[in-house]
Structure formats: structure tokens, C-alpha cells
């Protein structure tokens, strides 16, 4: 009876909560979640940003939960999951085209696909692929969209690796740095994660502002 209750508690994992995922699956879970979020359309709801940041924080051993992860294996697992997931999503997009998206009834997923296509058209392949890493949902759907739109394999691979390393390693080290410098910082994890997500959107916001400013300038020159 006790064994059954223990097994039940282990299986009761909240996939939307980073700490729950890490408590249940540890470092290996990070790689699996990042692969699913960036490579499989069904993983668009998974908490990639907060998972990376929280995992980095837990490497310091200062969290009240007592859970401690190892930094080096975490960095490797996070990078492998993020890069392999994106490449898998791209290959699925090349083979299945828009079929995968058309079968989904998720309004959020379709909105993400629209934004991903706009990124590719507006900023070009390289910049769009890197920027998409920092936008939830968009980083899931841009990869199959790139495959469906026949973005060259070499171009996609180079820039998804660049963006994937900056995203996965950068957020993990940010969590580690904060956890090392602020005692019991995990008490304030939710507002910190919210700030991290907001900061991750700055590159996209700056690009949108710049493109609109340039468009207004060109329109003004045309009128003049």
C-alpha cells in the first residue's frame, strides 16, 4: 500500500510547473522537455524558459526544497535537447508540410504559426530563427514552418544552433548566477521567471520597433 502511494505521488507531476518537473525527472527531464517543446507541436505549452532558469538556480544547492542539480550535465543536456528538438521539428516540417498544423485545433498554436511565418518573412532566415528561440510557442512552430517553407538545411542548422545555445545555456547560467548570489532566491521564483520571460522578449520587441520606424521613415520620404 505504501509503495503504491509513493508511486502515485511520483507520477503526479505538473508538466506546467518547472519545479515539479525537475523534482520528478531531474537533469534528464530538462533535455526531454526542451526536445518536446522545440521539436514536437504538442509540446508548445511546456515551460522552457522557466525550466531552464529554475534548473540553473537549483544547481547552487541554496533552494529550500533541498533539490540540487549538477551544472555541467545540465548544460549539456539542455543544449542537446534544444538543438535536437529544433532539427527534428524542421525535418518534420519538410516532410509533412502544413499538414501537422492544419490538423491542430489550438488557436494559440495557429497564432504562433502566423507569428513565426511573419518573423521569417520580415527579418530573414537568420535573424528570425535566432529571435524565435526567445518567444514561447513561436519557438515551437517556427521549426516546422521553416521546413515547410524550404529554408535551406545549412542555413537553418547554423542559426538554430546559434540561437539554441544562447537560449539554453544563457538562461541556465542566469539562474545559476542569481542563485549563487541571492540566498533563498527560490522564494521569489514566480516573479523572477516572469521578469526573465519579459526580458527574453526585448530582442523581438526592439526588432518590431525598428522595422516600424524604418517603415514610417520610408513612407515619409515617399510623401516628400
Describe this structure in words.
This protein is mostly helical and about 220 residues long. The chain has one domain (about 15-210). The chain is about 80% helix and about 0% strand. It is built from ten helices and no strands. The chain has helices at about 1-10, 20-40, 50-60, 70-95, 100-105, 105-130, 140-150, 155-180, 190-200, 200-224. α6 (about 105-130) packs across α7. It is globular, with a radius of gyration of 19 Å. InterPro entries: DedA-like, VTT_dom. Keywords: Cell membrane, Membrane, Transmembrane, Transmembrane helix. It is found in: Cell membrane.
Q: Could you write a compact summary of the structure shown?
A:
One of its GO terms (cellular component) is plasma membrane. Belongs to the DedA family. With 224 residues, the protein is an all-alpha fold.
Question: In the residues, how many domains can be counted?
Answer: 1
Terminal Cα span: 81 Å
Oligomer: single chain
What structural category do the secondary elements indicate? mainly alpha
Shape: globular
> DSSP helix count?
10
Number of strands: 0
Mean pLDDT over the full residue set: 80
Poorly predicted runs = 1-11
Radius of gyration: 19 Å
Transmembrane segments: 21-46, 71-93, 156-176, 188-209
Protein name: Membrane-associated protein
GO cellular component, one term: plasma membrane
Membrane topology: Multi-pass membrane protein
Amino acid at each position: 500500500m505504501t509503495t503504491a502511494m509513493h508511486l502515485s505521488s511520483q507520477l503526479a507531476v505538473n508538466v506546467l510547473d518547472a519545479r515539479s518537473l525537475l523534482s520528478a525527472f531531474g537533469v534528464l527531464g530538462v533535455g526531454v522537455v526542451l526536445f518536446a517543446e522545440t521539436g514536437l507541436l504538442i509540446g508548445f505549452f511546456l515551460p522552457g524558459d522557466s525550466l531552464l532558469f529554475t534548473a540553473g538556480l537549483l544547481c547552487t544547492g541554496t533552494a529550500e526544497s533541498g533539490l540540487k542539480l549538477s551544472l555541467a550535465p545540465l548544460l549539456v543536456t539542455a543544449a542537446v535537447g534544444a538543438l535536437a528538438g529544433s532539427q527534428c521539428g524542421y525535418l518534420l516540417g519538410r516532410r509533412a508540410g502544413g499538414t501537422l498544423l492544419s490538423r491542430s485545433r489550438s488557436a494559440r498554436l495557429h497564432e504562433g504559426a502566423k507569428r513565426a511565418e511573419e518573423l521569417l518573412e520580415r527579418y530573414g532566415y537568420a535573424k528570425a530563427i535566432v529571435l524565435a528561440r526567445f518567444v514561447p510557442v513561436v519557438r515551437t512552430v517556427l521549426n516546422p514552418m521553416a521546413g515547410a517553407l524550404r529554408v535551406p538545411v545549412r542555413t537553418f542548422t547554423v542559426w538554430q544552433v546559434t540561437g539554441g545555445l544562447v537560449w539554453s545555456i544563457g538562461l541556465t547560467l542566469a539562474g545559476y548566477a542569481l542563485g549563487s548570489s541571492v540566498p533563498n532566491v527560490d522564494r521569489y521564483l514566480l516573479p523572477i521567471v516572469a521578469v526573465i520571460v519579459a526580458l527574453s522578449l526585448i530582442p523581438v520587441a526592439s526588432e518590431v520597433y525598428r522595422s516600424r520606424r524604418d517603415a514610417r521613415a520610408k513612407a515619409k520620404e515617399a510623401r516628400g
